[in-house]
Fold:
Amino acid sequence: MERVCAFDSAPEPAGPSAPLPHPRFLPPRGGRFTMTMKSLLRRPADALLGPVMGSVMSVRTRSRQVVLTFDDGPLPGSTEPLATVLADHNAQATFFMLLTRARRSPGLVRNLLQAGHEVALHGLDHRRVTTLPRHDLAPWLRDARAELEDIAGVPVRWFRPPHGAQSPRSRLAASAAGLTTVLWSGTTWDWKDVSHEERVARAMRDAVPGAILLAHDGAADASDLATEEAVGGVDKVALLSEVLTGLEERDLSAVSLGTALTAGTPVRRLSFSH
Structure:
């Protein structure tokens, strides 16, 4: 789930250009200084293309809100217990749904909406959009959005590509389909083979005002054309409960993306990976 080529779209003040250090004076490849130099070199392109090609990574806000998002559902037996935990903590979330899953559980989709949550598109299935033939991209997105709207009975405006993988072409195709691409700035690591304690620690480290946290209520499989197996044995209910309690202790509230944007503005960054 790691992404590459992600950097802030906020423009930096203009200033005189300076010669770059000779490579022999740089630290080993991949060092902190090298990565900083790469980010600085990309700033001009980011400032130019970010507003057009950037994906929403977080929310610039003065409110003490964290955007909680779930991918790969809805999944009966998993989504409902998570929704109960959300209700217990008076929390909201945005659910990025696979159409393959929403078709099987239309009632669950509508129940989430009635509980105050937000429905968004994760894809017609779980294939990486970067692997789709060029001529399939637009109908894949357009048709999936239309059918999910029919199931939910509300407009669908957000899209998160499976694995966060996208190309400039797929990013433009999403816009043409009337969708705003949303990625994330933090994660619960519920997709990674680490301990429960590490998952909680990672989520709390990333939980700052305006952060968009990635979690999963479902697990894509072969029926969704997924090519990777989900990590098993994750107690998602306990994880969510502990994360929400941690947010409350920091005077932070979990909300949907739509709610966060009523009092904030989207932070867009360029992010492309395969």
Summary: The longest helix spans residues 32-53. The two ends are 10 Å apart (CA to CA).
